[in-house]
Fold this protein.
Amino acid sequence: MTAVQIRSEPALLHKHTGDDSGEHVGFIVELPEFSGPLDLLLSLIRDEQVDIYDIPIARIAEQFLARIHGMRIDDAAEYLEMAARLLRIKAQMLLPRPEGMEAWEDPRAELVRRLLEYQQVREVVDVLERLGDDRRNRFARSYVQVQDEAVDRDDRPFAATLADLFAAVDRVLRQATRPIIHDVIPRALDVDGAMRSIRAVMALRARARWSDIVSRDAEPWQILSVLLALLELAKSGELRIAQPKPFASMELSCDTAS
Amino acid sequence: MTPLARLLEAALFASARPIPSETLGQLDPESTPAGVDAALEEIRERYDNEGHGVELVAVSDGWQILTRPEYTEAIERAQLAARPQRLSGAALETLAIVAYRQPIGRLEIEDIRGVGAGAILKSLQERGLVDVTGRGEGMGRPLLYGTTPLFLEHFALRHLGELPRADELAVALRPALPQALPQALPQALPQALRQPLSRAS
C-alpha cells in the first residue's frame, strides 16, 4: 500500500523540480549531488552538527524533505522511502513510553546502525578514490591505443545495398566501348606441296628462275608457300639460291646435277 | 646491474600487465626466489636513485613498470596516452562494499547503500573490476560478487589487506560509540579485517 504511494511520487517531484528550472528544460546531464538517501542524510547530520547517536528526528526529517524537493533526482523513490522511514520513526518517538519499562528500543537504532555502516563505506570510498587517482596518474605500457583507434576507423566494413552494387556495375559497363569482333579464318600454307612442285621443276631442268616456279596469278598463300619451300630446300642442300644483283630475279640451281 | 636484473627489466618493460614473481623466476631457470627479489629491489633502487621517469611498483601479486605521476600531464597533453575515466561515487561505494564483504549479493549491497545497485554492478562487471564468484544460499540463489585482480591493479593494491582495517575507519565516530550499539560496525568484514574489531570494543 505504502509502496504504491511512494512509487507514484517521483512524477510529482520531477514536475516540481521542472518548475524551478524552466530554462534548463531539455537534455540535462548532471551528476547527482548525492549518491543516495543515506548520503543525503549524513550530509544533513554534518551540516546541522547533530549527534548521530541522538538524532533529532523531527528536525532532520523536515530538512530531508525540504532538500529532496529542491533536487533533481532520478531515483526519487529511494529518497521518498527514506523520508517515509524518517516520518515513521518520528511517529514512534512521539508515542508515550510506558513508565519503568526497561527494554525500550530506540526506534532510531536501526537507522543509526545503517548510517554508521554507510559512513564507513564513504570512508573506504575516500581511500579508494585517493588510491585510484594515484594509479590513474601513472601510465603502464598498455596505454598506447590512441593510434590503434584511428586505424580501426579506416578499417570499418564496407556497406552497400544490392542496388548500389548493380548501379556501380552498370556505370562501369556503360563507360566501356563496344568491342570490334573480327572473324579470322585460318588458311594453312602448303609448304610440302610447293616443295614437291619445285622438285618436279628442278628434275626437268638444271636451272630455274623465280618466275618459273610461281605462276603469275598466284595468291599470297601460294607465294609464301613457295618461299618457305625454297628456303627449306636450300637449307637441306637440294638446291642453291643465287641473286646476281640487287632486285634481280632469283636463280635456282640444282647441285645434284653437277 | 646484474644479468638477472637486466633480464627482469626487459620482461617488465615488454609486458602490459603486472608480472607475478613466480613468472619472473621462470625467465631464468637458475634463479632463486630470493635472487628474483634481490634483482627486483635492484631495479627499483636504480629507478629511484638515478632519477628515472618510471618506477617499479608492486601491484596485485606482481610487478609493473609505471611512469611517474609528475609526467602524467605532459604525456596526456601530447596525446601519447590517456588516463582511464574516473569511477563515479556510486561505483566506488559499490566497489568498497564488495571489497569488504565479498562474496556479497546485490540485495545486501543495496541495503547498505540505500539505492539500487543492479546497473552499477553490471558496469563494474563489464569493466572487469568485480565478478560473480558464486551463488548464495537464500531465495532464488542470488549471484554473489567479489573483486577481481584487475580491481587490485586499478587501485595499485597488492592485496585486499592493504585497504584500511575497520578499526582505522570512522575515527570521528568511534569515541562516541555507545555500548548499546555494538552492531553498528560491519560484522561481515573479511576475517583479516574483522580481527581488530574485538580489540576496539
Notes: DSSP finds ten helices and three strands in chain A. The first helix of chain A runs from residue 2 to 20. Strands of chain A lie at 207-209, 239-242, 251-254.
